[in-house]
Amino acid sequence: MKKLKANEPTKSELQILSVLWKREQATVREVFEIINQQRPASYTTVLKLMQIMHEKGLVERDAASKAHVYRAKTKQNETGRQMIQDVLHKIFGGSALKLVQQVLETETTSAEEMKEIRKMIKQAEKQIAAQSSKKGKQK
């Protein structure tokens, strides 16, 4: 069984974070209502998870009003970047090629998404070329 880092979100915590990222902030009741539409959930379970997430530093809580308002402490792309780096190194030995191959073999990719991926690759190639030329000039 996979051992999680102390502040690495679990699958259930990621579901809560997704709600907070979309709404920017929400009460436990609001999060519960959204999650309960997606899958059966209990209010007390959502409450307990959000309390644990607060202790882990994943969310911050504003206790100024009767109903505490929660916000994600990190942005979605920051959490995603950290989790992708973990997967990249733990599963694919640091190989971006193997990671991308797995994604393209596993997930259906639209023509529009492929076009965007190609743009990203071209942009990354330009950045690498620029970095290489800077290093060459510094020597």
If you had to describe this structure to a student in words, what would you say it looks like?
The chain has a 3-stranded antiparallel β-sheet with strand order 1-3-2. α2 packs across α3. By secondary structure, it is mainly alpha-helical. The termini are far apart. 68% of the residues lie in helices and 7% in strands. The protein folds into 3 domains: 11-72, Orthogonal Bundle (Arc Repressor Mutant, subunit A); 77-107; 109-139. It contains 6 helices and 3 strands; from the N terminus they run αβααββααα.
The structural domain count equals: 3
Q: How do the strands line up in the largest sheet?
A: 1-3-2
Which CATH architecture of the largest domain would you pick?
A: Orthogonal Bundle
Q: How big a fraction of the residues is strand?
A: 5-15%
Residues in helices, as a percent range: 55-70%
Low-pLDDT runs: none
Which superfamily, in CATH terms, is the homologous superfamily of the largest domain?
Winged helix-like DNA-binding domain superfamily/Winged helix DNA-binding domain
Mean pLDDT: 90
Terminal Cα separation, in Å? 48 Å
By secondary-structure content and strand pairing, the structural class works out as: mainly alpha
What sort of overall outline do the alpha carbons produce when their principal axes are compared? elongated
Task: Please give the number of β-strands.
Answer: 3
Task: Determine the number of helices (DSSP H or I, runs of at least 4 residues).
Answer: 6
**What string, H for helix and E for strand, traces the elements in order?**
HEHHEEHHH
* Rg for CA atoms: 20 Å
Main beta sheet:
3 strands, antiparallel
> Which topology of the largest domain does CATH recognise?
Arc Repressor Mutant, subunit A
